[in-house]
DNA sequence: CGTACAATTGAGGTACTTCAACTTCCGTGG
DNA sequence: CCACGGAAGTTGAAGTACCTCAATTGTACG
């Protein structure tokens, strides 16, 4: 595991950090006026962009060992909400950026992390702007499989920490459309569900087909 | 101007760079298998994510002095296309990241740049996922005003280098819907257009209203 | 075991898309 | 300078994918 904040890195910047425990459903109490960097020690969270109280977009789902860059409030408000109980390490972005200049290797890893987040966000933009409901669900499931999936023979088991509403807010659909798409995938035997949160991906190739990925892959 | 690659920075990394000239409409011939960092010396470009030949999302519009991080090809292909004739400075991302560790200040500015791109991408995700057509157009115009707008009394003049199709591909609408929304804004005297590319924003407060920004701003 | 909430399913509405025709713009050549 | 032609943009009519509203079923927790 190539953690951004390994023991030696933390020795230098640990004093800048603030440890937080946020219980499931709660908002991380972050500074709204300054960008913040949050290291998720344990748990799972969603970063939401809020345009109105009843209209929000999940900008990213994040899990243990992820680093989340939470923007300051601008035209819209950003909140980091815990999906399950979380342990967080919180840094003011500007302070951290300046402090880690004594350790360029850590800075480079921060850059890599930011680049990864940017790439995921761009994939999300493509999904939101140009994909159908069934493609969106397939993309979502495959992306979750890559991050928190557990191989189970030819299948992949997902234990999703987020609700159907969260999923919908993440891929720009309503809770009902998400539910209908799950039902279609079940009918076609691409997935099986168990309870509210467990999803078994039965046919990854077929899911990739539905995701609308490029045909001519390297 | 706080350029990322000022004279002293370029002295150290200039040898890594490749200069390119791309004429309007052309693709920058980048390495598809590795992430690339492009500094736009002059011109304007669009970064597109392609799901199919007839289905692409503009991930970002970029202008002179911008740094664009172009992902390697994954599930989808990314292309940097020139909107007008461009002069570019191209770096392999990984090589550059390692090389600039001798100059943490440059690394920190790269991180800031990446953070800005991430923030813009997240705003885009919110627009694509949760905004109506009229809100999207307003958001687009305001975002362009902030980047390439020229104050003209109380109004702001835009000389858009991209077509209606590009705009649509950027905010997830069809060319026809974009056109209809422009017509509505004209009827309501929020904008005036002149030729294909010039847009005069006549009423910024009203545009912000239509953009669906948060009411209770600090 | 019962309650509260999450998820599913159905019926009807709507915002945007698709398809098609027309108009404007603007570079080119007469 | 003006006329031409092709591309870009605009406008209209019809279709559809997704949303909204409403009722039912399922799930997890006390």
Describe the fold and architecture:
2 copies of one chain form a homodimer. Chain A is α+β, with helices and mostly antiparallel strands and 218 residues long. Chain A has 2 domains: 7-128, Sandwich (Jelly Rolls); 131-211, Winged helix-like DNA-binding domain superfamily/Winged helix DNA-binding domain (Arc Repressor Mutant, subunit A), CATH 1.10.10. The first copy, chain A, contains 7 helices and 11 strands. In chain A, strands 1-7-2-5 form a 4-stranded antiparallel beta sheet. In chain A, helix 5 (164-171) crosses helix 6 (175-187). Chain A is globular, with a radius of gyration of 18 Å. At the A-B interface, strand 3, strand 4, helix 2 and helix 3 of A face strand 3, strand 4, helix 2 and helix 3 of B.
Task: Give a summary of the structure in a few sentences.
Two copies of one chain form a homodimer. Chain A has 218 residues and is of the alpha+beta class.
């Amino acid at each position: 595991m190539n953690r951004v904040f390994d023991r030696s890195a933390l020795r230098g910047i640990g004093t800048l950090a603030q440890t937080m425990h946020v219980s499931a459903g709660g908002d991380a109490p972050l500074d709204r006026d300054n960008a913040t960097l949050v290291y998720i020690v344990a748990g799972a969270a969603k970063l939401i962009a809020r345009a109105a109280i009843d209209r929000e977009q999940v900008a990213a789902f994040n899990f243990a060992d992820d680093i989340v860059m939470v923007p300051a409030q601008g035209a819209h408000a950003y909140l980091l909400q815990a999906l399950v109980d979380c342990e967080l390490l919180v840094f003011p972005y500007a302070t951290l950026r300046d402090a880690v200049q004594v350790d360029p290797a850590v800075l480079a890893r921060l850059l890599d992390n930011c680049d990864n987040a940017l790439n995921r966000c761009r994939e999300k933009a493509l999904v939101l702007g140009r994909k159908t409901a069934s493609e969106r669900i397939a993309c979502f499931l495959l992306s979750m499989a890559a991050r928190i999936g557990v191989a189970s023979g030819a299948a992949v088991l997902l234990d999703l920490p987020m609700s159907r509403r969260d999923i919908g807010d993440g891929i720009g659909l309503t809770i009902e459309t998400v539910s209908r798409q799950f039902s279609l995938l079940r009918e076609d035997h691409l997935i099986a569900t168990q309870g509210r949160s467990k999803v078994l991906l039965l046919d990854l190739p077929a899911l990739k087909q539905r995701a609308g990925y490029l045909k001519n892959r390297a």
